[in-house]
Amino acid sequence: METTRLTTADAIVRYLIAQKSVMPDGSIAPLFPGVFAIFGHGNVTCLGHALEQHQDELPTWRGQNEQGMALAATAYAKTVRRRQIMVATSSVGPGATNMVTAAGVAHSNRIPLLLIAGDTFASRLPDPVLQQVEHFGEPSTTVNDAFRSVSRYWDRIMKPEQVVSSLPHAVQTMLDPADCGPAFIGLPQDVAAAAYDFPVRFFDEQIHRLTRQRADIHQLDSAAAAIEHSEKPLVIAGGGVHYSFAEAELAAFAETHNIPVVETVAGKASLLASHPMYAGPIGVTGCEAANNLAAEADVVVAVGTRLEDFTTGSWTVFKNADVKIVGINTARWDATKHLALPVVGDAREALTDLTGRIGHYRAPESWSDTASAEVSQYHAYIDKIAAPDANGDELPSYAQVVGVVDRLAGSDDFALAAAGGFPGEVNNGWRQKALNSFDCEYGFSCMGYEISGGWGASMALPDKDVTVFVGDGSYLMMNSDLYSSVLSGHKMIVIVCDNGGFAVINRLQVNQGGAPFNNLLADSKIVEEVRVDFATHAAAMGCNAETVSTIDELEAAWKRAKEADRTTVIALQTHQNSWTEGGSWWEVGVPEVSAYKSVRQARAELDEGKADQRAGW
Which ranges constitute the DSSP H helices of 387-480? Predict the structure, then answer.
């Protein structure tokens, strides 16, 4: 067997370069198009050295914060619909643990992400080394064990030859539609430097294609029978529609069988907002139209969704006691939730196979007419609250801010948001003019994702404009990738809405009977309420930046940003208490006993709402 002598670090880099991916247009592209890196003593001398030597084949991008760069990597993979995987590498200690949050984001959203962190010495001779956290009774434990709970694949390389086994398993895990998520590799410093005679064929080019699992025929037959007997069927489109590239098949299924389609946050932009079967976003951050249809539905076809509580209203949106759920998913865990009829398989193939079984079945016209009427009311409501003068003399609302971009955007625009108040606003107010034109990280609801994710999305979409919606709270948590975007030339438009603190959590706090406390700046333990000059801050990192006061000024500023050649930050103060309504009930913990009458009332309302919860796991 022909071999070549390499360090472990160099072997890892060469293996990553050899992996290729078949893209949607049939072209062949690198499976790993780049590495986000912050170097330290745990990864600079070996992995950094290997990356430097191969920088033309595997570009390395310098991050500002390990969490941010791993979030950018996650957004990149999400934007290209899991056909490419970015790598994030850190040193040992705090550099590694900074990436744990990003791993949680990738894990909960089922996004591939390769994390390579430096580790302590396998020999243990220098112990304790710089940044090592010692576990007295478990000397093999390091901070990298923290990744176990947020990784689909976890390994620590203790001998160079283990790479030959470990890396292929990591890649296959990240590419498996049912098991997709982050893979973590811990790389002890002495092992990274060690040499080994690796098989040459280990570095042969490998071309990876999207795996399409076909569903069992008996599962398809059971699902088809349920749909055929339905009078009020409803499709929920989840993120799996995007990752299966099933948008065309979804549209054809809905049109052929006259079935309305509602979308989860991850599944948004599976249909155009103008599509006749589109019925809006469902759940807590959804609209009345979608939730009203869900309440009446007798069969719910859940395509590629994990049915989290914001989609199901903590399992209260399905009011029909006899409703049947058909779970189409590559993951058996998701397909079988809440006594669903499982269809374990690829979304595109399953929709096609179902159509073949239900033939000329069409839901009654009265049902699609009901959906159309509901959707008309939804659009009228959004148009009303998003109008430039909707708030009168008060500060602009989030809905008005989103409305600016919704009105002006074209098919070349991409919207991105995350935690806080924006998910409910963009999920309702961004009415997609192009498929796959939206990313709202709400699986992990990670504040700070917005700007870093915008950088990753912009990198993945060089021909589109990415508009990032971010509140002041998330901006202050993580903003340094504004600088990254300027340095790397990946332009985005960032709209910063300053509502004086964590306003949406203040809303939750007050709505559940609590007193305003520690969320808004005005209700926090401070000596002076200082408002940040976000535009000046962004300008200091090289961005174009300006502060506006009105919706008309925001419109003009966004148009200027579209024409700009670099990242633009537009800041404005927004209303603290004006929100888009229409979402469903949501279960949160409310005290059973309290001195506050308002809390006791909120608890009574919680108990009343729980009576509508669908039972059964």
Answer: 398-408, 422-429, 449-460, 472-477
Helix, strand or coil, per DSSP, at residue 415: strand
A 10 A CB-CB count for 164 gives 14
Q: Exposed e or buried b for every residue in 53-69, given b needs 16+ CB within 10 A? A: ebeeebebbebbbbbbb
What are the pLDDT digits (tens) for 263-314? Answer: 999 999 999 999 999 999 999 999 999 999 999 999 999 999 999 999 999 9
Please name which of 401, 388, 598 lies closest in space to residue 510, comparing C-alpha atoms. 598
User: Are 295 and 345 in the same domain?
Assistant: yes
Cβ count within 10 A of residue 540: 12
Contact 65, 140 (CB under 8 A): no
Domain match, 450 and 544 both: yes
Task: State the residue range of the domain holding 337.
Answer: 217-376
| Nearby residues of 149 by Cβ (< 8 Å), 6 or more positions away | none
Alpha helices of 387-431 — where are they, by DSSP H?
398-408, 422-429
Q: What CATH number does residue 103 fall under?
A: 3.40.50.970
Same domain, 80 and 147: yes
Using the predicted structure, report yes or no on whether residue 617 has a pLDDT greater than 60: no
Which of the 8 DSSP states describes residue 501?
B
* Cβ atoms within 10 Å of 298's Cβ, excluding its own: 17
pLDDT at 358: 97
Q: How many domains does the chain have?
A: 3
**Is the pLDDT confidence value at 130 over 50?**
yes
Looking at the DSSP bridge assignments, the partners of residue 183 are 114, 153
Boundary-marking domain end, from 343, 376, 409: 376
User: For 400-421, what is each residue's pLDDT tens digit?
Assistant: 999 999 999 999 999 999 999 9
- Asked if the peptide bond before residue 128 counts as cis, ω within 30 degrees of 0, the response is yes
pLDDT digits (tens, 9 = 90+) for 194-251: 999 999 999 999 999 999 999 999 999 999 999 999 999 999 999 999 999 999 999 9
Yes or no: say if 479 and 496 are a contact pair by the CB < 8 Å rule.
no
Helices 398-408 and 551-563: angle between axes, nearest 10 degrees: 40
Same domain, 41 and 126: yes
Same domain, 20 and 94: yes
